[in-house]
Fold:
Amino acid sequence: MTSLPWIDEHYLWFPHPSEALDDPDGLLALGGDLSPERLVLAYRSGIFPWFSDDQPILWWSPDPRCILVPEEVHISRSLRRTLNQQRFTVSADTDFAGVIQQCATVRSDGTWITRDMIAAYTRLHKQGLAHSFEARNADGALVGGLYGIALGRCFFGESMFSLEPNASKVLMVHIAGQLDRWGYCLMDCQVESGHLLRMGARSIPRRQFLSILRDNVDRKPAQSSWHMDWQWPGPDAVPGNSG
Structure:
């Protein structure tokens, strides 16, 4: 830890991601702050914060990097049946505060979404850079959600939660369909998980990920406002080709 670069909060700077450690994978630097300007620079550079309350801010850029190309989302037969049942309604930016709070509450591996993190991403949300997707059941209760950062045609998923079976899967299909409609090239998933891989995510070399960012973080997306206008259209449809 002591050999890592320390980020002075008075300087807006990061080391290049290629300088990150191999063990733990992707740990790049520590220190700095969670100002909107630094967070935007981090995501543009393929870097994200991840730390606990008892740690300084830690900055990461793992290699390989897990991504989901929206048109490549995988829909299993059982998930297709669930989608056709329309058990959940998916929306965007209707309850950012509720989503990020639930993400912080239901995590089983520690509360790395600290109070400072919640405040930082809420500031980004107010600036139109951080967004949420929500899944509600038939009673209108919030039972799934995901929040992240949108820059150009890249969406950086930060965290998600699910309180009912299949809510997160339905949510991911709708997010993929919406991002695909808006012309987004990827959703950054940061690191692999079995759930993400089953949904069609894959890992690519960090250098390839950074190249995609350079080509897309300044491209204007197709949407004029952040709201859902894509819904599951039927039993034979997939997000990549279902108007």
Residues 167-182 form the longest helix (16 residues). Helices lie at 36-44, 77-85, 96-106, 115-126, 167-182, 194-198, 206-216. Residues 52 and 112 are 5 Å apart (CA to CA). Residues 239-243 have pLDDT under 50 and may be disordered.
